[in-house]
Each structure stands twice: as C-alpha cells, then as structure tokens.
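Worked Example 4.2. Read the sequence first, then its structure tokens.
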Amino acid sequence: MLAIKNLHAGVDDKNILKGINLEVNPGEIHAIMGPNGAGKSTFASIIAGKEDFEVSQGHILLEGEDLADLDAEERAHKGVFLSFQYPVEIPGVTVTNFIKTAINQTRKAQGLDDMPAGEMLKKIKEVSELLDIDRKFLSRSLNEGFSGGEKKRNEIFQMAMLDPKLAILDETDSGLDIDALKIVANGVNKLRSKDNAVIVITHYQRLLDYIVPDFVHVLMDGKIVKSGSKELALELESKGYDWIKEEVN
C-alpha cells in the first residue's frame, strides 16, 4: 500500500530525514519510535503533505502512485489521514458539520455527489455507537473546550467516518490518562481491517499494549536504524535507546 524509498527531507535547508525506506501493506500496523528530535513527527507530516517541509530526494508511493506533486488536501482525498498531536479548535463549527463537509469534499474530488442526508445520518449513528460516543458530543464546536481525551476520541471518530486507506497517528497518546488511552486504542482496533493500514508514532511502549503493532521501527537521526516485532518496543522501554546507538556506531 505505502512504499517509501530513500526519502530525504527537511525544512529551511536543514536535512531531517536522511534516507528512509519503509513498506506498509494492507492490514498492517507499524509503530515508529525514537528519541526526541529523531524526525518522527516530520516523517508523519511529510507523508501527509504538509507544506512546511521539502522533499529533496526519494519517493512516497501510495498504491503505486507517487504523492510528490499532491498537496495535503489531495493526499487526504486519496485516503491519507493524519491525526495531530495538538488538534485545532474551530469555534462555531460542530463536529457533525465538520465531518459532513470533509466527507463531501472527498466525494467531490472523486467525482461523486454529496452523500445523501439519510445515509450520512445513518453512518454517523453507526460510527458513534461503535466508538461509544454520546450524540451530544457531536453537536459541540470542534475541539472547543474538549479535554485531551475528547480531542483524541474526536479524531478517531473522524478517521472512522472518512475510512482512510492509511491512517497516521502522530503521538496520539500524548497527554492522555490511561482511560482516554484505552478509548482511543479501542477505536483504532475496531477500525482495523484487511483493506487499511495504520502507522502509530509514539514515544511510549504503553500505547502498544493496546494497539499491538505488527512491526516496530526505531527512527534515529533521520533514519530507520532497527526494525522488529512488538518485543522491540518492550526492549526499548527497559533499556532506552543508548544500546541501539552503540549498535549503529
């Protein structure tokens, strides 16, 4: 599904990613871990097409299509979803209206008419029940006054409604207590299927107790320096990253 080949990228003439190679197949969950400043959030932002960063070398292919010339909105329409560390508040725009607009804009980009109102309401009802979301929550302004857990749950709701091919969760566990963490993880696990894939970017092994990855990759100094199974995350939790630095050097 996703093939990243020799990816070099950065910002303001600073090279942050220095030759990343990664393949993600349908049905898989990949975890990206690494110390602060390793390039994890940059990696997520570049896949999603954020304009702040520039790719100097390499390719990002989604189902064989090079995403290089597509902006963030076009990539979203192709099925790339990015959850943010710090979701933006949009006063006056309800969660429901926001997701209706997002879905219909994607349909428009695909040459389809707006989703019929009845079908939209049915889908909202089904997804909110799947994720145990109170319908009153959906009438609130987007992220305004939301707790950290509510913001993350809202993003999982958006992900479920948009049904992306590739979901990238950028430190979605940041600032969450254990109950909120379980809610988010439960949503991700319920949405997992043989047709989609998830990249989870995290500092902490604890998230991977609830979202169990097929592969764990360690990103250091702009490169993936080690890959393994979930056991690699446990090893990082107990030993830190210094031993990998010693291996690489």
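Now turn to a second chain, presented in exactly the same format:
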Amino acid sequence: MCGRYTTVSRIEEVESRFAARFEKPGLFLSSPNVAPGESAPVILSGRPEVIQLLRFGLTPFWAQKRMLLINARAEGDHNPDNDPLYAGAAGIFQKPSFRKPIRTQRCLVLADGFIEGPEKEKLSKPYLVRRASDDALFAMAGIWDHWTDPVTGEILHGFSIITTAANDLLLQIGHHRAPLIVPRELEREWLDERIPTEVLSEWFKPFDGSAFVAWPISPEIKKPGQKSMELLSPVGAALGESKTFIAREQLELQGMGHSSARVRRRRQDDEISRPAPDSTSEKG
C-alpha cells in the first residue's frame, strides 16, 4: 500500500511542472509526511488546469458512513500473490467502491516522494522513495469521489491512490506493493474521461524504478503529526542509482525553500569556487 508521501516542493515549482494553478494557494501546506485524512494537491479529470486540495482517503458516494479508502488495487481481488509480472484482469473495474471513479473520476496525485517499509515492519523501518534527478515532482494515479454526510449535509471530496505490484526497487525494500506512477507523457491522457477501459488496463504495471532512489529514514515518520523535514534525512545506505546524492541535495534545499534551479546553481558555484591543485607542491 501507499499510506504516506511527501509534498515539499514550492508552489511555483508545482504549478510550472504540471502547467496548472492552485485553486486556493493560501490553503496549501507543504508536508514531508502526508497522512490519511489530510488535504493534499490533486488535479481532477475535467479540470486539468486547476490544482485542488482533496482529502487523502475516499468515501464512496453511496456509503452510509464516512470511510477512508486510501488505496485501490489495480488488480482488485486478483493477483493475491502480488506477482510483478501479473498480466490478468484489472479487477478495479468491478470493485463497488471504485468502478465508477476509475471510469470517469480519475486524478493525478502530486508528489515529490513516497514512503514505504518492509511488508512486516511497515513504517517501523521506513524508506523514502524519490526521483533521482533535479525534476523531483511526479504524479501518482488516483481516483476521487464525493460523499454527502447524511446527518450534517457536509460534502466531502476524497481520493485514493491506485497501487500495483512492486517493482525491483520496492522489492529491495521488502514491500510487495507500489503506487501506480503515471508517466509524464501520459498524465493528460489519464485525466481524459474518454479513454476506454482496455487502454487504462494496459497502464496498470509497476513503474520503472531505474529513475528512482530510496534511502532509510526515521521511524518517527509513522506519527502523522510529525512534519519536520529532518524526518526525511537518510539514516543508512541508499538503494537505487548513483544519483542519490543529487536527490538528497535537492531535498535539503527544498526544505529551506529553494528551487531546483538554485540547486543546480549552487552545484555550479561549488565547482567554480573549488581551489585548483597547487602545481608547485611536492608529494612524498
């Protein structure tokens, strides 16, 4: 499952990356620890130019009481062994809670990292998973729904993150599931309500982990109220590509309110200011 993720990029970067504007930017709070029940940025089908804040956790429109469905398995009840090579039916189209939203109420869940732990230890042994490049932002595939409280009349809008079987990187962590990450070139298509179900089913595959890195972080992250950027600092060896340190540097500067461009400029400045070797010195 995917129960925690991060949204620490600046508003300007999020808007630029997704070519959309926050509907209510004053309500957005960046978070290194987005937990179920909290508001987070999404782009809904039908309104690709607007970034809205919805609750992490979907309640089906027909439910008699409030629910908090944070994940939706692409395979539904199929693939009980979580085989990464599963190529069978996409059972999500038959699940009562998801069969309507997956067809007409899809969304992009905006993030710059997600947090997973081994299947047994869970968030007692968490890892932060991030892109290994300056372009930290990505979109997880989501579905949304609205529910009206029968007592108060309050209307709640919530979303679930679609999950698939794990890829190689998540398997290294020891986790059996992964969020479905939408390739950048398919993000607008994911929001297109006209896409047939057979096309959608072809996208329900584990994401390419070669562009991501992961490192262990503090188990304090399992406390929803903990929102310190320090929680995302590595506490052990990283998994993934050798670009880990680039991603880590970006994470540190994001926490201080800097953009990716400033990360690159700082790296260039470091190269320029580094003293040249003294050719007159003797070794020995």
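Notes for the reader: The longest strand covers residues 138-148. Confidence is low (pLDDT under 50) at residues 242-248, 255-284.
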